[in-house]
Specification:
This protein is of the alpha/beta class. It contains 16 helices and 11 strands. The strands form 2 sheets. Strands 1-2-3-4-5-6-8-9 form an 8-stranded parallel barrel, surrounded by 6 helices.
């Protein structure tokens, strides 16, 4: 697949696999696609170890890292504020509500393992200062791409990346966002539609992609949101995209570190079983609907806090829920994860390499069918 995006990334197939799992990233990269590690859930030390492992497994093949630097968040004017200060900003009402949820669903406590500082460190990754530490780690490895998943990438990050001959990508949800991103000097725009998992806008992929392609030409555009098959990839090409950015499709793969209970939920879910909710990060993010999202959506309960307060507030609760989900019915009702509407098609567990091959083969088959249709018509 000879597109400008494929050439820039140095890959055979312009199939970008966004994943927080190192094994998915390496499997897709080694299959001819392009793995991108979502770094926001990592501490700098964890990211260093993970990228070193990936380096040893991909044998020089290109891969990337995705960070999350929001424009608007608590402490943004200062580039982020201290952990102690953030904790002081957590309202007692919200603390009590989270405690009441754990009690209501009978989620057992965890033994004190001294991980509180580690949890806070991960939450602080959702700020400029936290992200900058992750970026510094990423720049110490032979990555090919660095992406910012939320808002314009900082100018100094783009400049440093270009100094290192790296490709810079940014995710957008509107034409206006794409134009602003292009003006900052990014190399690839990822047009992510409403259907996508994680942080999304409100415009569907079918409408968004051609709008963005037109707005930022000749900058290459990758389509994201609702793409898990070769047929959908071909449709993205027809809309003007030069590749696809996929996330949800890897969550049910053999390599995925998805919680077993959540993976089973994904395999059973329909396309209508997701919801955009602020209950996890403080910003609207599409995820599997569960008792957790329902409770936070109830008008009788507190509204989620802004980023990064919400992830800091719920971090310990999420650990308890995840730890108990396999053995506690209540925790099993609460546990969930980010996923797009395409989850309704994710009803088999496959190797990540097989997913790549299936996408490519179906892409070719459908393209040939369309070519026959056009030939017959002519």
């Amino acid at each position: 697949m000879k597109t400008r995006a494929a050439e820039m990334l140095g890959v055979e197939f312009p199939i970008v696999a966004f994943s927080h799992c190192r094994d998915v990233v390496t499997a897709v990269t080694n299959a001819g696609g392009f793995g991108v590690l979502g770094a926001v859930a990592y501490t700098p030390e964890e990211l260093e170890a993970t990228l070193s492992w990936i380096d040893s497994e991909v044998h020089g093949r290109p891969y990337g890292v995705d960070v999350l630097i929001p424009v608007k968040y608590v402490g943004a004017d200062e580039g982020g504020i201290s952990e102690d200060r953030l904790k002081e900003l957590l309202p007692e009402e919200h603390r009590n509500f989270v405690d009441s949820l754990l009690e209501k669903y009978d989620v057992p406590p965890l033994a004190d393992d001294g991980d509180e500082d580690l949890i806070a460190g991960r939450s602080l990754g959702l700020s400029l200062k936290g992200a900058e530490r992750l970026i510094d780690v990423a720049f110490g490895h032979p990555i090919r791409l660095i992406a910012n998943a939320l808002g314009p990438a900082p100018a100094d990050m783009i400049e440093e990346a270009h100094t290192r001959d790296l490709v810079v990508a940014s995710l957008v949800g509107t034409r206006q966002h794409a134009e602003r991103q292009q003006a900052t000097g990014v190399d690839i725009i990822v047009a992510q539609g409403y259907e996508a998992g994680g942080h999304t806008g409100e415009i569907g992929t079918m409408v968004l992609v051609p709008d963005v392609v037109e707005a930022v030409a000749p900058t290459p555009v990758l389509a994201a949101g609702g793409i898990a098959t070769g047929r959908q990839m071909l449709a993205a090409f027809a809309l003007g995209a030069q590749g696809v950015w996929c996330g949800s499709v890897w969550l049910t793969t053999q390599e995925a570190e998805t919680h077993p209970v959540v993976k089973e939920k994904f395999l059973r879910a329909s396309t209508s079983d997701t919801v955009r909710s602020r209950s996890t990060t403080g910003k609207p993010a599409r995820q599997l609907r569960s008792a957790w999202t329902d409770e936070w959506a109830d008008p009788a309960n507190p509204d989620p806090l802004p980023m990064p307060l919400q992830p800091l507030l719920i971090a310990d609760a999420q650990r308890r829920i995840g730890h108990a989900a396999a053995t506690s019915d209540g925790a099993g009702q609460l546990v969930n994860y980010f996923v797009g509407q395409v989850v309704g098609r994710l009803n088999q567990v496959k190797a990540s390499r097989q997913v790549v091959m299936d996408i490519v083969e179906e892409f070719i088959d459908v393209a040939e069918d369309i070519n026959k249709l056009l030939t017959t018509t002519a």
